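Sequence only, no structure available. Ideas?
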Amino acid sequence: MLTLRFTPARGIRTALLLCLCALAALLFTAPQARAASDDPVTAQASYLAERLRENPVHVTDQLPRVVPRSTAPDFARLAQRTGVPTYVVVLPYQGSSASEELLTAVHDRLGRDGLYVLIDETGVAAASDHGVNVPAEHAATAVQGELPYDAGPLLSFERFTDVVTLTPEEAEGRAEAASGPAPEGMYIGSAERDDQSFATGALLTGVPLSILLLAPLVHRWRRRRPSATPASLKRRRGLRHPLFLGTVAAVLAAGAIAGTASLVFDETKSSAAPPPTAADLSSRIERVVTGLRDDPVYLDPESCRFLDARRLDRLHERVRAFGAMDGGGPVFVTVVPQPSDSETRGRPDLFAAAVHGKLGKDGVYVVADPGTGTIDVVNFGLRLDSDHLTTDLPEPLAWGDSRARGADDHLLGERLDALMTHLEKTPRTKSAEFPHVMDATPDPADDTNLPPLFSGEFLPGLALGAVGAVLLFLVAVGGLGVVLAVSDRRNPTPTPLALLPILEPTHPTRCHLRRVAYTELKALERVWATTARRATLARECRQAALLLANGSPDVLRTASLPADTLVAVVVLARAARVLLTGEAEADLCCAVNPLHGPTAARHHVRVSPGEPPRRRWLPVCTPCKDTAVVEPATLPDTFMTLPAPRRSRTRYDETAGLLTSVPDGVAALAAAARARR
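Reply:
I predicted one. Tokens follow.
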């Protein structure tokens, strides 16, 4: 039997040996532990792992405008559909490679198998499975291809849970099918709503006003058609008046446009973000303020920690030194991301103001963004030159130089140390300074609620629509005039006899008389060339008309003939054509207005408005006869007038000329024309 006996000397040697081994182990592991603690992802992953240990769904408080913390129960409900332990983390955008690395680090520190999903502002950013058999990567790929960019995180995670429950083959097929072009967005923004409002306003004035302007033009064009009938050319009154019909059509068009626009442009929201609660909007500010009450330097635990222990200790020393120096004061440093979907809309000045108001302590508030690397400084109540801290802050401190922009940590520790030096050198003022009046924090409803359709660019659209309608009317008038002019020049067609009393004006212009004379004489020449039976009176009227026109219809286009001569050409040429075609009796023409065409009846008509009225036995057309019977007092005002010198007009029967023989018939007019020549 072997017996071990320990002597005092041997015990001392054993103890010394154990101490040396422990010291060697400590010296070997200390650098590794320090390196692990200085790893930017370590503190972030450890914090998230602790949150997931408490609750498998962690929703950040940094995105209340797009993913409020109050939506955590919705994510938890969807996570139960996967059928496996699911851990969901909602954070601001981390980057594709950083997202996968973060999920792995969180799993290693949590030590639990399951499905890990990272969600950012747009949707599912990364997913990994540990110890469970689910097609996580295929599901994430399918979601990114199947949904538009603005579907929102909640809908994205819902589609993810639908795909992740499929078999691996089915999920892979969904991922491959989603590799095509991305679908269109589900929502519109304020710019698109402005376009809708502008288009609605332009149509709402352009279309009805165009109807009002073009209706008389169309009515007038219909009256000039060769196929028009006397019934269609009767003056419409009451409900059948063109102006009334155009007004009704314009009102109906305006109502239809307004109603259709309201139905088609029915969007009311610009994103899928649910409205945040008051607690959602104040959660992050309260978290930061709670941390600042214990430590003037607050590092966001949900972000990568870019300040190692040495830099952090150095920053604490500088903050304490500045607070103790003459003219110094408290400095509160917050290394917190400032995403655009935060409670302050990504504005560091509003964030600093909110923290200052909640903390209730004056001092210099430094807001450093670990995501972008920007540094902002706001002075609340210290005797420091605020302009020197804001507008005069050197760019390498505020934004970082090229070296800082190329570093992963944006050299925040080095730049914050330089910022403290800048603070120490800041000029002192006689009194405490506060920042200028800041804008109020934007209302979350303004982020998602679209402005009404009939607002914004609606009024400019109304103005443009009115201008467009006027331009369209001018173009239509010009185009119709050109078409009619070309048509009349190429193939002038005389107005049907039955329409003459309706269409021919009482006060014709010289241009109108020239055009009608040319048209009637050309029509007579065509009929003359195709008619073998030629009456004597027709021959005499034709000869007289050609004599007045200097032998050719083309002369009427260029020669400046008197107005009474042009009227005589019209009457003679028309009478000759009627005699050749046999359309009607052409021995007489209307003595009230010779342009009304031939007639075969005479009637006592009032020729002067005086008392007692003067009457004459004159040939008149049927409409003038009806007027003489029904409204005899108005007939003197319907006698045709001709242009006179000095822009005046004279009744044709009061001038000494060819037209004095009109009441005696076309034969007398032809004889007078031959006698003049």
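Residues 1-12, 14-37, 226-234 have pLDDT under 50 and may be disordered.
Hope that gets you unstuck.
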